[in-house]
DNA sequence: GCGCATCATCGAAGCGCTTCGACACATCCC
DNA sequence: GGGATGTGTCGAAGCGCTTCGATGATGCGC
């Protein structure tokens, strides 16, 4: 492996000149810079990662804290991970994946060993332990999700789930629906302390109350047949239901859509359907669904950029909530009655 | 952050003594070691990753080359990733995730910058470019999948797909089936140069020929409805078909199982079904399927261990093929006729 | 009790990089 | 024309660790 002194020798300059040419932190004559760049190319020089870290510069590595939950939706999880990796690469950063079940030990470890410049945290809970760790270690960090009421003093980015809940109801109410069945995430999501479900529900309930909409909520588990059963319950509880609102993962949506068909109902003629905060492509479902997409890529991009801004010493804290946007795919119609 | 000299001072020994106590490369008196360990605990000392790298020791990081393909099955992909991470953690290793679309540039980069001690590569092709890179860089590496005829001189681990193909036919043939429909992976898998499909098919065809079994193969794409259509084609081509053999991802299996039901057929009474090299849990399907499970965890474990053995300087090259094992879940019965 | 292994510990070099201060030189203004 | 200012480059220190060789202490056999 070529070192910086090989480059310096080849270019006929000193080591520090090469370093400054690389970092751009001091002015270098164009001709000198050109010679250095030639040498770098010729020797296929790549800075030694360890040396760079040790000398107190950046590591060009970001940790991604991505705790796995047994009830989580693996494809969604993976989409987040790859979105973070893609964005990081665009800034010449690599990603160290902390994906064991233990959320905190990994962060603690990388923080203490100065292995990473910053952290991006997924699966953020309403009260997330990781907040304290990054604060104490003064480690640049961005949370995908909101910890605490107002971000607990760290950088958070998320879809505005509260507004998404309102928007979902608004969309259905504007189409004339008065009784809406809601298919939510498994109850374990709430138990685990995931904040977004609470926030979505709060928006949902507030808007429904304000507009006098009746909502019935079911939270099927991921067990086979549970989604279908939950839909049946919904219909039993309110036979006058004219719309189904999904706030759950793709397999549950697919199962319910099949059940709807099985019961001889058609979307949107007999029943309107709307997918809120969909982490999947609703246009490829058996029935393309109008939806509020989860802006997953955007969330990851903002998170990575926030973390990197903090690395550069720019204060980038605070909560950024992305406004929800509804997309019409024709699955919401006026109720017939 | 505490450094090694803080620890040395606290324990009343020299820096090198602390280092040797940590690495165990020289003998240290029990009492000295105890004092050092106390100091480490008290100061919450964690070695500086960069310093360790620079001093020529290990980085305790493994790169995971996990190229993403649009036609891949994200949950399976994610299971591989987490299995590698879990195993690595058990050896006190962290994982740097190289998951952009470009297989090779990531490996090249980490190799040149000495960022990682080794590489684990997923999604291995029949002729994988990454082989040359790790060989040239003398980078410890383990491939999950087989490159070339016999591993191209690098460490490879995989299910023995050829035997799996044979075993699948054997299982069905032993139950008395003479005409088998095969639902395979999308054609893009083969076009992309994925080796395991070829090897599975080779085993399949050889065994079928040897036993005089008729096989019809369909390779549905992931487009909605294509799996169902493919199954219909299978039935049209050979109405005397008594068994379906799956060598595809879960969503396709689910779709075909539904189609089977829709056509008024029952498994295993009317039609036997068998899932080969299943990366998913076949006991949770609508119809629990007898299967040859893909030993995903075992593959990842072996790969990580092989890479780490190479890091320690032990020669761990060569191909390790895991023998396939069939599990009976009652979805294969004797044909009725 | 002497020389000789063996054991436990230490000091110092060096890994490749960044960055600070210094320096030589050119440019500018009164 | 001389001091002030700015520009491009260099030398050297130091980041925290590993490891080699050296050294003092201990135990052994004869």
TrEMBL record, chains A, B:
Pfam family, one: Peripla_BP_3
Domain of life of the source: Bacteria
Keyword terms: DNA-binding, Transcription, Transcription regulation
GO molecular function: DNA-binding transcription factor activity; transcription cis-regulatory region binding
Presence of keyword Membrane: no
InterPro entries xref list: Cro/C1-type_HTH, HTH_LacI, LacI/GalR-like_sensor, Lambda_DNA-bd_dom_sf, Peripla_BP_I
Domain HTH cro/C1-type: 3-46
Segments forming domain HTH lacI-type: 2-56
Xref: PANTHER family: LACI-RELATED TRANSCRIPTIONAL REPRESSOR, LACTOSE OPERON REPRESSOR
Listed name of the protein: LacI family DNA-binding transcriptional regulator
